[in-house]
């Protein structure tokens, strides 16, 4: 009999048994000492809930809108690369699960299904995550293709001028299995987007700076969300330079080790932003209570990364659907038991930092 999966964390253990070591390590690991990787989770356990009682919670409303796009819950899918290593349907399965759950999926630049293939799965609100390469034409073409394919936003990842040192990947000599390709860079994708993979791989531009954020706005009318903000000063700069949204992220602890957990810097950034643009957060989200804590600290929504790839590995589209449903149900229960019938009831006083834990 198939084991009953009752929470998001269980997928990781099953995925570990199922996936080749090289792939599991690539998905799971963090940079260097992996301090930030552990801290992304540990920090949530230092935040406690302060429920209110005797509030009518017979109906709990989790619907929200991000940049004007209505979604069923404040839980969205982060960009994670190369999903066909997890499951043959890869990003297509993730896209279908996201649309079914009425939430936003972010497609990575380094995906194993192309922008157009993901769009062809049917309607859905999707963002495209952009890495900017030395050849700016590549970024321009990708953005144009995403726009044409009906994507609704560009998530500009700014915390990867160089690839972080993940020592498991170095030991395993990680590389994309030969039967897979980074589909957005395939030569004949039939869309005129003929980018050669050899031109793109390893060519992310370390000179990327705020001027490029401005440049990006000249080539697209899509809103640009800056992903990888960890300080108030950069949040302010992002807004001054035209960002439509801010994603507080440490890249799932895969880039710079010993940066704080994202949940620990969220409040400082929310305060600096002063409601001018939505602040979103990712990193270590595995429970509905984590989502609640992020919202209480002022986030408008959260993104999940590893929870998606592990559930995809275990059970394809059904796995991702189940993860989204479990998080949704957990958030609903947390809200009900905390006396919050809607997202606007999740205020700062509903949580406290437990200093002595
Ligand atoms: C990522 N992440 C990421 N980010 C990005 O901007 N572009 C990308 O291609 C990828 N690829 C990627 C692959 C894998 C396997 C992981 C785990 C992560 C980072 C991702 O968007 C997100 O910031 C983190 O995954 C969030 O942390 P959790 O939910 O994995 O703890």
TrEMBL record:
Residues that hold FMN according to the record: 79-81, 108, 129, 157, 227, 249, 282-286, 305-306
Pathway recorded for this protein: Photosynthesis; photorespiration; glycine from 2-phosphoglycolate: step 2/3
Chief site of localization: other
Pfam family, one: FMN_dh
Segments forming domain FMN hydroxy acid dehydrogenase: 1-356
Broad enzyme group: oxidoreductase
Biological processes, Gene Ontology terms: defense response to bacterium; hydrogen peroxide biosynthetic process; oxidative photosynthetic carbon pathway
Active site per UniProt: 251 (proton acceptor)
Enzyme Commission number, as recorded: 1.1.3.15
GO molecular function: (S)-2-hydroxy-acid oxidase activity; FMN binding
Compartment(s) where it occurs, according to its Swiss-Prot or TrEMBL record: Peroxisome
Keywords: Flavoprotein, FMN, Glycolate pathway, Oxidoreductase, Peroxisome
GO CC annotations, alphabetized: peroxisome
Cofactors: FMN
Domain of life where this protein originates: Eukaryota
Reaction(s) this enzyme catalyzes, per UniProt: 2-hydroxyoctanoate + O2 = 2-oxooctanoate + H2O2; 2-hydroxyhexanoate + O2 = 2-oxohexanoate + H2O2; glycolate + O2 = glyoxylate + H2O2; a (2S)-2-hydroxycarboxylate + O2 = a 2-oxocarboxylate + H2O2
SUPFAM superfamilies: FMN-linked oxidoreductases (SSF51395)
Residues binding glyoxylate: 26, 131, 251, 254
Family indicated by similarity: Belongs to the FMN-dependent alpha-hydroxy acid dehydrogenase family.
PANTHER family the record matches: 2-HYDROXYACID OXIDASE 1, S -2-HYDROXY-ACID OXIDASE-RELATED
The protein, known as: (S)-2-hydroxy-acid oxidase
Originating species: Arachis hypogaea
């Amino acid at each position: 009999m198939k084991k009953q999966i009752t929470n998001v964390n269980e997928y990781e253990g099953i995925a570990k048994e199922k996936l080749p070591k090289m792939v599991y390590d690539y998905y799971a690991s963090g940079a260097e000492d992996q301090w930030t990787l552990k801290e992304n989770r540990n920090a949530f356990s230092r935040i406690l809930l302060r429920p209110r009682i005797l509030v009518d919670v017979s109906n709990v409303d989790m619907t929200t809108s991000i940049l004007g796009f209505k979604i069923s819950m404040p839980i969205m899918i982060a960009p994670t690369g190369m999903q066909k290593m997890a499951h043959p349907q890869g990003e297509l399965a993730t896209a279908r699960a996201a649309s079914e759950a009425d939430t936003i999926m972010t497609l990575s630049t380094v995906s194993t299904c192309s922008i157009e293939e993901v769009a062809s799965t049917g309607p859905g609100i999707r963002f495209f995550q952009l890495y900017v390469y030395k050849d700016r034409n590549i970024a321009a073409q990708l953005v144009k293709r995403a726009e044409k394919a009906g994507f609704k936003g560009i998530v500009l990842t700014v915390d990867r001028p160089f690839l972080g040192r993940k020592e498991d990947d170095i030991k395993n000599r990680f590389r994309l299995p030969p039967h897979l390709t980074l589909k957005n860079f395939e030569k004949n994708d039939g869309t005129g987007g003929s980018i050669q993979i050899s031109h793109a791989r390893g060519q992310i531009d370390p000179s990327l700076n705020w001027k490029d954020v401005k440049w990006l706005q000249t080539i697209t009318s899509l809103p640009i969300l800056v992903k990888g903000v960890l300080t108030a000063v950069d949040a302010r700069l992002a807004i001054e330079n035209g960002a439509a949204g801010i994603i507080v992220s440490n890249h799932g602890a895969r880039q710079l080790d010993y940066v704080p957990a994202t949940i620990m810097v969220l409040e400082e950034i929310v305060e600096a932003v002063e409601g001018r643009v939505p602040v979103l957060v990712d990193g270590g989200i595995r429970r509905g209570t984590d989502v609640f804590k992020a919202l209480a600290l002022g986030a408008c929504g959260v993104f999940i990364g590893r929870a998606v790839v592990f559930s995809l590995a275990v059970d394809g589209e059904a796995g991702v659907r189940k993860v989204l449903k479990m998080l949704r149900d957990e958030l609903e229960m947390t809200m009900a038991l905390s006396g919050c019938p809607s997202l606007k009831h999740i205020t700062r006083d509903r949580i406290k930092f437990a200093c002595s834990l």
